[in-house]
Amino acid sequence: MSGMPRADGRIGPAMSGGLRPGRATAPPLFLEDLTVGQRFVTATMPVDAAAITAFAAQWDPQPFHLDDAAARVTLFGGLAASGWHTAAMTMRLLVGSGPPFAGGIIGSGGELAWERPVRPGDTLHVTCEVLEIIPSRSRPDRGMVRVRCLTVNQDGQVVQSFAPKLVVTRRPTQEIPHG
């Protein structure tokens, strides 16, 4: 899969075959559907040198993200994806094949760490675990969910850890007609 601009103008793999079947029709998850300890695993995404350099050229144009020869003399020792590219791929995996939160994946902050470089030839997936569920007292239509999302390569090595706080909507209540 190429990292060059696609026909739709975006950069990176189209993920045409990587999404798990039925994701678009999976029932939405509301706050009430979640439990502490619940886990989600995304589809996989292959990473190639073209994707790494295309992202870097647009968003993080440093030599170790743009040129393998230049990267060899840095602490990376070879071409490495930008951490922001890793974060973007993580988000794409979550949106495309992660938990189908009703209302979308809406973050309100979190801790992000890049544990090791992503290299050409890596294949990534994300595992998420629900850590905490806090219904809002002031806004009864939503709550906060703290999750831990680990982006993992084909060797089981964590390349990124992210612990966001997400806004998740509650299941709408049915209005009972008066009469």
Give a verbal description of the structure:
The chain is of the alpha+beta class. The chain contains 4 helices and 6 strands. Strands 1, 2, 3, 4, 5 and 6 form a 6-stranded antiparallel β-sheet that branches. The protein is elongated and about 70 Å long.
- Tell me what the CATH architecture is: Roll
CATH topology descriptor:
Thiol Ester Dehydrase, Chain A
What best-fitting shape do the alpha-carbon axes yield?
Answer: elongated
Number of domains: 1
- Beta content comes to 25-35%
Q: What is the CATH superfamily label? A: Hotdog Thioesterase
Helical amount among residues, as a percent range? 10-25%
Indicate the low-confidence ranges by residue numbers: 1-22
CATH class label? Alpha Beta
Relevant terms:
179 residues, alpha+beta, Thiol Ester Dehydrase, Chain A, six-stranded antiparallel β-sheet, 4 helices, 6 strands, elongated, disordered N terminus
Summarize this, please?
The protein is of the alpha+beta class and 179 residues long. The protein is 20% helix and 28% strand.
